[in-house]
Amino acid sequence: MHVYSYDERTGGRIEACDIPADADAGQIAADISARLKAGESGGKSAILFTDIVGATPSNIAESLAGDKAVVVSGVNLPMVLTALCHLDEPFETLIDVVRKAGVASICPESA
């Protein structure tokens, strides 16, 4: 079963970055910053998804947020799939749609 059809543009638009527990946070931040600069296209250009607010990946992402990137923490799969499906939307619309998808996908377990 496929949850997302392959779009040849996706490979150049999305990256994952693992941050090992013993990693040098400053070096990781510098590496991600260089990737963000390489992908600059004017205006905000990246969503930095993190899992837990306050954890090392979140802290690194927050240090990079600003003119070129927005941090969205508490990521879940519907958020990522929504981002992929709406890559051609204006950036602010994309962020809004992604946040709404995250909230809408959190459902109480039925009794």
Short description:
The protein has one domain: Phosphotransferase system, mannose-type IIA component (Rossmann fold, 3-Layer(aba) Sandwich), CATH 3.40.50. The longest helix has 14 residues. It is mainly alpha-helical.
Secondary-structure blueprint of this entry?
Blueprint: H1 25-38, E1 46-50, H2 56-64, E2 69-73, H3 77-85, H4 91-104
Parallel strand pairs: 1-2
Radius of gyration from CA coordinates: 15 Å
Tell me what portion of residues adopts beta-strand conformation.
5-15%
Looking at CATH, the homologous superfamily is Phosphotransferase system, mannose-type IIA component
> In CATH, what is the class?
Alpha Beta
CATH architecture: 3-Layer(aba) Sandwich
What's the CATH topology label?
Rossmann fold
* Large-scale geometry: globular
List keywords for this structure.
single chain, 111 residues, mainly alpha, Rossmann fold
Give a structural overview.
With 111 residues, the chain is mainly alpha-helical. The chain has helices spanning 25-38, 56-64, 77-85, 91-104, and strands at residues 46-50, 69-73. Helix 1 (25-38) packs across helix 2 (56-64) and helix 3 runs antiparallel to helix 4. The longest helix has 14 residues, at 25-38. The chain is globular. The two termini are 28 Å apart. The mean pLDDT is 85.
